[in-house]
Predict the structure of Two component sigma54 specific Fis family transcriptional regulator.
Amino acid sequence: MSHSFDPASASPYYGFVWVDLTRHAEASLAETLDGAFDIHFVDDPEDVSNAIASRRPAFVCFEFDEPSAQGIDALTRVRREHPALPVLVIAGRNSMSIAIWAMRLRVWNFLVKPVPLRELCSSILTLAALTRDGVPQRPRASLIASG
């Protein structure tokens, strides 16, 4: 996976909340998007609701390395409190429990690490386009996993 990204091919006007539940900051895929989007980072699952209320994002992205009760609780809370807000979930290869929760909660998309940068940006741009008018589309019926 390339770790460089041309910000000119995206837009900093697409604002969203990135919930970084990785164990190490350098492991987060968000690092590859630096400067390409207006990303508000949250690393404490307890702060997600406040970030959504203050930022009014187009969507929320949850990035997991491994399942955590706090992370899954935050994801469940977001889907319950903001059912129209699209959610993108990115998880490690061995995160079957997160995939099951993502399906149950009807997230917009589920990606499995390693995610090619082009695919990640494509998902973000698609979500941004779907929510551009402030009216999110219904969640997709199927989840797409990369690998």
User: Anything to note?
Assistant: Confidence is low (pLDDT under 50) at residues 1-10, 135-147. The chain is about 30% helix and 20% strand. Helices lie at 48-55, 69-81, 96-105, 117-131. The two ends are 12 Å apart (CA to CA).
